[in-house]
Amino acid sequence: MITPLTVILGLVPRMTVNAPQIMGNGQMNQQILEPNDDLWSKAYAMAVSLAIAAVGALLAFWVGLPIPFLLGSVIAVTTASLSGVRIYLPDWLRNIVFFMLGLQAGSGVRPDTLGQLASWPGSFALLFVMLFAVTGLTYLLLRKGFGWDGQTALFSAIPGALSFVLAAASDTRADLTRITIIQATRLLLLIGFLAPLLAVLGRTAPHVDLTAAHELTLEAATILFAGGLAGAVIGHYSRLPGGMMLGALLASAVLHGTSMVEASLPRGLSDVGTIVLGVLIGSRVNASHRRQILHYLPAALLAFIVGTSAAFATGAMVWLMFDLHPAQIALAFAPGALEALTVIAFSLGVDPAYVASHHVARFIMIAVTVPFVAKWLNGKGSSEQ
């Protein structure tokens, strides 16, 4: 019997490494879990990874950190991974979590959300300005300030879309190690920086009232899961980063925005999913990266400062020109982490549709322009040799 769960589980191979691990020679390093590891090793590593994330999330909640389930799990898993603990998150679990988070985030869309669309085209235009500024300024920093080659500096400067960036960079002479370190460090710093800032901004942001949602009946659940599954499958094959979660989010947003479904999933599912998401984010670096992180840390920190400053300067223009709250703008214009920032938007009650749509637009802009710029830099580099 074919069920939504079997479709989700079948979208990807049964076992892959949790995130790309890059060795010094630019080759993929699968030291965390080898394909010939037995089922027990995989299950044990997964259980340890989830336990570490859960403990970190609970401690963060107890201490009172902002967005504790994400921030706590990311800190705990990153620390453990850098310490040499084997971190593993199977793709089937990741897909289920992304699917559920997408359905939950999309439930934040209401019929009156559609009336806000008129103010978004100008925001998208300034998003392109932000992308150009962040990439250009970070590129100049790495190229002129640290003497990196043009292709490595370009792919390291691109805000987010790590999977696409690594795939595109692998066809060039760019240094994949530097790119991975810069991008992963920026992601971790971005979440650590935004969490306390958004905790303050989110207090006065216009909130989506999820408490008013209707009870999830069997009929509503069937419609929501069927529509979300169709969106998740389309999103998966679109090859967009976070495509499964994005597809489920858009389907759920349409269903809730048109009042076909007026109920949302239990909030506890979102909290559990956020903890699992922390495993995925925290596993982007491991013990083999420790020396490289220290070596490239000055470049990573300055790249983060330059890129984030450019993003927030552009966001300030959006705030002055359009009737949008700073929390919405900060989440939408932050340079990277589509999945994490969409989940943060939902957890804070901030419009997730605005946030997700801007991150998708940013990825499309990157996908369209970067190959041409990389080709031009490749030709320029060849002519200079």
TrEMBL record:
InterPro entries associated with the record: AbrB_dup (IPR017516), AbrB_fam (IPR007820)
Transmembrane segments: 43-62, 69-89, 120-141, 181-204, 216-237, 299-322, 329-348
Keywords: Membrane, Transmembrane, Transmembrane helix
Entry keyword annotation includes Membrane: yes
GO CC terms: membrane
GO biological process, one term: regulation of gene expression
Superkingdom field: Bacteria
Protein name according to UniProt: Ammonia monooxygenase
Source species of the chain: Phyllobacterium leguminum
